[in-house]
Amino acid sequence: MHFSCICLAFFPLVAYGYNVHLYDDAFWDGRVHRVVSDECEDIPMKMKDEISSLNTHGTCIFIYKKRGCSGDWAVIAPGTYGHSNLKDISFDDIVRSIGPCKDLS
Ligand SMILES: [Ca+2]
Description:
By secondary structure, the chain is mainly beta. Helix content is 9%, strand content 37%. This is Beta/gamma crystallin 'Greek key' domain-containing protein.
């Protein structure tokens, strides 16, 4: 118990904020929609089923195939596939919500 208190003191629980530009064409082209948040956000109707590439500006997000951050998901973070073309990870034109990265450990 004492140990966990020390951990919380040195590593406070923080929200994993993200800053992402979503594009309706591959390779960061077409219409763009920016989302800055630290919680789940549904894709606006005007961009629904159109997202084909994205730029997370070094942050980490989860993308989901259903609204409310549910359904199949994938991690988009520095070094992962899919940023330039979501078709590479079978998420082209299907992203309906995005959310902060979760601790998968
Ligand atoms: Ca598209």
